[in-house]
């Protein structure tokens, strides 16, 4: 191993990279655009839910409407209420998307309610958007469930005036057989943007690192550079170490650039700890080795690019890079758990975002370390095989 030769190859690789505009775009510009888009969509706190509700009634239900208008979340109203003079007016408004739900209070509603009889309300939803339907239905159902519980409690309180005092708790139990008492715990608050900063790092490994390593070595093979190096004082292994060092240095600068942009644009203070950088180094070794192995086995830049994209695009989701593991289908979760890059991101998030201890990421660390060493061995074997074919 000759340090001078490695240094020369390192400098040559960095200079060649600086001349490639497309490479600069994919390594530096594209990740920043990714952060900018995700930050613009998900970077801020979740907006307060506001449900537009229309209603029609021939009776005076102003007390219910007032109660709905009084519901607030984070200081903002949950319901915006619209009155419609007829059933068809409200249904048309619902179909046109002017309201999210339409309530119809039938004749006799007030009488039934005051006399203790069942009082029915017709609720119309638009199911064309299943997600919106579930949110709207949950908000309205939750409101009327709580309203019904309070009304029943008031009725039983009135009944309790005519029964022995020791029987009152039993009677009130009819209103709320089970009561949930909400308690809050101040845990680690994680913003969506912190999650997507780690996603940005994962994207670097899935695309830029693999493509840079495989393409750069294959270009040298096609130019005949590697064949000439094999007969020079600088060995093919010096060439490989120089290539991998240059690739890692460029990716490292790209990560620093992305972290700085996230801080300046979104005020996300994310900077890995020493162990976090160890995880990043191991993930880089795995990614470079995987890219090199693919390149050496295919022997073609076009084929390599196609294979890398074929592998990377599904892993972008199934390795929990851009989608949280909790949202993945059950069959995809083992990929996020056991694939080394997925395990690396999981460990990085546990350490740097949720501030868990080292003992709580030991499984992920083991997976990443073994994965990096095994893939490096495969890459070196395939590289030696390709060198022998060149020398033959």
From TrEMBL:
Transmembrane segments: 21-42, 195-218, 246-268, 274-294, 306-323, 365-383
Family matches, as PROSITE patterns: ABC_TM2 (PS51012)
Compartments where located: Cell membrane
Keywords tagged on the record: Cell membrane, Membrane, Transmembrane, Transmembrane helix, Transport
InterPro entries on file: ABC-2_transporter_component, ABC2_TM, ABC2_TM_bact-type
Highest taxon above the source species: Archaea
Bilayer disposition of the protein: Multi-pass membrane protein
Name the UniProt record assigns to this protein: ABC transporter permease
Lineage: Archaea, Methanobacteriati, Methanobacteriota, Thermococci, Thermococcales
């Amino acid at each position: 191993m000759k340090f001078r030769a490695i240094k020369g190859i390192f400098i040559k690789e960095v200079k060649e990279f600086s001349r490639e505009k497309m490479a600069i775009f994919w390594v530096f510009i594209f990740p920043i655009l990714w952060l900018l888009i995700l930050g613009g969509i998900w970077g801020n706190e979740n907006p307060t839910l506001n449900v537009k509700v229309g209603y029609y009634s021939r009776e005076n239900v102003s007390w219910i409407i007032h109660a709905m208008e009084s519901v607030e979340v984070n200081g903002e109203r949950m319901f915006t209420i619209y009155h419609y003079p007829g059933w068809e007016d409200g249904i048309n408004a619902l179909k046109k998307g002017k309201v999210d739900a339409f309530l119809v209070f039938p004749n006799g509603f007030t009488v039934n309610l005051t006399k203790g009889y069942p009082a029915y309300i017709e609720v119309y939803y638009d199911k064309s958007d299943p997600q919106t339907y579930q949110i709207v239905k949950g908000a309205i159902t939750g409101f009327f469930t709580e309203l019904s519980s309070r009304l029943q409690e008031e009725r039983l309180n009135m009944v309790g005036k005519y029964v022995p005092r020791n029987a009152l708790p039993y009677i009130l139990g009819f209103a709320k057989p089970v009561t949930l008492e909400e308690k809050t715990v101040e845990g680690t608050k994680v913003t969506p943007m912190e999650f997507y900063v780690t996603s940005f790092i994962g994207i670097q490994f899935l695309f830029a690192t693999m493509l840079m390593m495989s393409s750069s070595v294959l270009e040298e093979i096609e130019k005949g550079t590697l064949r000439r190096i094999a007969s020079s004082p600088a060995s093919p292994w010096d060439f490989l170490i120089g290539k991998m060092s240059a690739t890692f240095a460029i990716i490292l600068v790209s990560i620093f650039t992305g972290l700085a942009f996230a801080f300046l644009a979104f005020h996300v203070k994310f900077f890995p700890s020493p162990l976090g950088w160890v995880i990043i180094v191991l993930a880089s070794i795995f990614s470079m080795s995987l890219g090199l192995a693919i390149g050496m086995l295919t022997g073609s830049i076009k084929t390599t690019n196609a294979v890398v994209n074929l592998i990377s695009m599904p892993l972008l989701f199934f390795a929990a890079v851009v989608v949280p593991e909790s949202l993945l289908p059950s069959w995809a979760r083992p990929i996020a758990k056991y694939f080394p890059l997925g395990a690396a991101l999981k460990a990085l998030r546990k350490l740097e975002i949720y501030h868990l201890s080292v003992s709580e990421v030991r499984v992920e660390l083991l997976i990443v370390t073994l994965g990096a060493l095994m893939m490096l061995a495969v890459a070196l074997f395939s590289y030696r095989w390709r060198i022998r074919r060149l020398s033959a």
